[in-house]
Amino acid sequence: xxxxxxxxxxxxxxxxxxxxxxxxxxxxxxxxxxxxxxxxxxxxxxxxxxxxxxxxxxxxxxxxxxxxxxxxxxxxxxxxxxxxxxxxxxxxxxxxxxxxxxxxxxxxxxxxxxxxxxxxxxxxxxxxxxxxxxxxxxxxxxxxxxxxxxxxxxxxxxxxxxxxxxxxxxxxxxxxxxxxxxxxxxxxxxxxxxxxxxxxxxxxxxxxxxxxxxxxxxxxxxxxxxxxxxxxxxxxxxxxxxxxxxxxxxxxxxxxxxxxxxxxxxxxxxxxxxxxxxx
Amino acid sequence: xxxxxxxxxxxxxxxxxxxxxxxxxxxxxxxxxxxxxxxxxxxxxxxxxxxxxxxxxxxxxxxxxxxxxxxxxxxxxxxxxxxxxxxxxxxxxxxxxxxxxxxxxxxxxxxxxxxxxxxxxxxxxxxxxxxxxxxxxxxxxxxxxxxxxxxxxxxxxxxxxxxxxxxxxxxxxxxxxxxxxxxxxxxxxxxxxxxxxxxxxxxxxxxxxxxxxxxxxxxxxxxxxxxxxxxxxxxxxxxxxxxxxxxxxxxxxxxxxxxxxxxxxxxxxxxxxxxxxxxxxxxxxxxxxxxxxxxx
Lengths: 279, 296
Fold this sequence. Notes:
The structure holds 2 protein chains of 2 kinds. Helix content of chain A is about 40%, strand content about 15%. Chain A is α/β, with parallel strands linked by helices. Chain A has one domain (about 10-275): TIM Barrel, CATH 3.20.20.150. In chain B, the strands form 2 sheets. A 3-stranded antiparallel β-sheet of chain B has the order 2-3-4. A two-stranded antiparallel sheet of chain B has the order 1-5.
């Protein structure tokens, strides 16, 4: 498989920070943007993205590919995504290992898949079709989940690893999502990380979550918690230096706070790589 | 115990349960009543555990579905939400999502049908002009990221004065023409004093049933709206439909003026409108392929 560039440490580009980012310079290495937010005809969002792309690497991160849905692939969506990619020349394109709608509907949420052989075959075939349509390989992100399907016969990490290997795609490893799902379902998050094919992990995500008492919710509304930082250090020691991005989508902080979180990820990664035996 | 279904059935059931208006439990009961589920017990689908039963776990997704979409609509229609208050807005969103479940890949499109939906909704009786308010909010949102165009400047229009029969401007893509309940603009002003719009009808007390023309446009990256006079509205309609030469616009104005209006007066009015449109940057060059012939 071809390798992807190591972009360093980035953040999600959000409109609250457009002015600050354009005013430049910043201390982040790259930006990730929500693809659908820029599948528009004109106006400020596209102008900002064009300006940002001149100075930074950009990754397109989608939320509506619905790779696991039993609905037909949305060719119009793929055409639009392909046109956006052709225009902005991202380092790569990613989306989520989930489904977002069925029957022509779109929940605009990242819904869980049953981890079955049937779902695995279905997703693998669709990833191949998407990669062929786009003319590029994509990365898929593990999502936070709040239930376990009664019919699942594979673990989540087995399912993710097999999708990546069989479909020849990348993995966007969301460390916070691993932590959230582990807490919600009672598995060992380190066992999850150890089971993944390291060479297929193109990128990592870090984010904050909310404790709802009965479950953890992937809210992207606060700083990364200490337990997730620990898991990130563990992942880095096992996987090596991988492009890492901090997501913060709710209660978006000022730029300095977000940038500091990004720099913390850089320091954590460097420390883990320099001291591979450290806790 | 029912068998675990195939992937399509899993997703269909999941969708129907998380979008059930009263929540997953009542949704499962309804599916059972219809014969779509053998029982209301969802443990054949979702594993129960000590913390949450299957219904409660699915309810997490039902809550996320509704709240994400409600928040999106509240962001797209802040004045509608402010005008009616939290609980009625919550109920409006519930009604709207049942009638117009999201289908587009982008959340941007979620609210497109809301203004039309409001026209026949009971809230319109409690809050007059609410549908018009929603139409104005949607139009402003819709032009924000519409196609860019190079606007015609005053210099361009002055130069075009030498070829009034063949120079055919058209309206920029990020322009919308609305005909609204005349109470909408005063309501807007009350809800948003000091906003970034010009209005010349806000001080009047419109009568029920009275409507006015309003144009919405984007200048650079800023969005504006303003009411239009009948003759301006008529010219803009001509421009929007098929583009129009300056000569055709002049003739349209002559038709719209009071009897006895001279060509010179109509030309003067056109000059003032062109000046206004250039300042607002609502005109762009028309597609040469669609250039109409000389006015008959």
